Amino acid sequence: MSKVLLITGASRGIGAETARLAAAHGYSLCLNYLHNEAAASELLKALTAGGHDAIMFQADVSIESEVEAMFRAIDRDLGRLDGLVNNAGILEPQSDLVDMSPARWQRILETNVIGSFLCAREAIKRMSTQHGGKGGSIVNLSSRAADLGAAHEYVDYAAAKGAIDAMTIGLANELGDQGIRVNAVKPGLIYTDIHADGGEAGRVDRLKSGVPMQRGGLPVEVAEAILWLLSDASSYTSGSFIDVSGGR
Predict the structure, then answer these.
(1) Helices (H), 93-192
(2) ∠ at Cα 28 (189, 82), nearest 5°?
(3) H-helix or E-strand spanning residue 76
(4) CB 74, CB 4: distance < 8 Å
């Protein structure tokens, strides 16, 4: 029987590439999306046409009732959950901190932090051996911004990812004896649409000269790290971080 995996923010970028790779590894998938129904539908169609088991579910991960409804749909349509990829995240336009508003920080923290917390909580209820589950794996999407700070651009986003790092370590310690491993992947400059959301679609090309490997990364290169952390090949790895950043 195939393992069941939820990927949040699965309609584009790293989330979509993770879905394609996970399907190829035999996972049954729930593809979460918020706004881009067309992209999620196209991905779902491609996966099911290839014989893969998948559903899609629209939910704002920052809203508790919507997250709970999504997990109930997984229970009903796919069965016992085995893994969670907390990938959903947002950026606001580039700005110095002095020009940011509390409302902007609230939006960033609600999606990037509260959303990851809510999904992790519901996953734990299903996977923890203390709750009658059979274990599983959670992979959080952090960012190298948590270490570098994203000055003059996204200090709020960097702070949110710093919170994800702390949650990853704390959860790994909480859940180590409950059959759940918790790890994180920290992408660097990756070619995804999120840079356009921040107001600079060409940001990776502008900054890639500062990467030791002298290039930006591809979403599939991040997906490979995520799939390893989900898999039994990383069975003794928890509370760990993989930088996928070209050395930056």
Answers:
(1) 102-109, 115-127, 145-148, 155-175
(2) 80
(3) helix 64-77
(4) yes
Please tell me whether residue 31 adopts helix, strand or coil conformation: strand
Close Cβ partners of 179 (under 8 Å, ≥ 6 residues apart)? 127, 128, 129, 133, 134, 135, 136
Catalytic residue among 27, 157, 191, 236: 157
If pLDDT is split at 50, 70 and 90, which confidence band does 38 have?
A: very high
Active-site residue 154, yes or no?
A: no
- Write the pLDDT tens digit of every residue in 88-105: 999 999 999 999 999 999
Measuring CA to CA, how many Å separate 146 from each of 102, 153, 243?
A: 19, 13, 11
- Whole-prediction pTM: 0.96
Query: Exposed (0-12), middle (13-18) or buried (19+): which is 236, by Cβ within 10 Å?
Result: exposed
Q: Determine the Cα–Cα distance for residues 188 and 60; give it in Å rounded to an integer.
A: 25
Give the Cα separation of 174 and 167 in Å (integer): 10
| Third-level CATH fold of 4-243 | Rossmann fold (3.40.50)
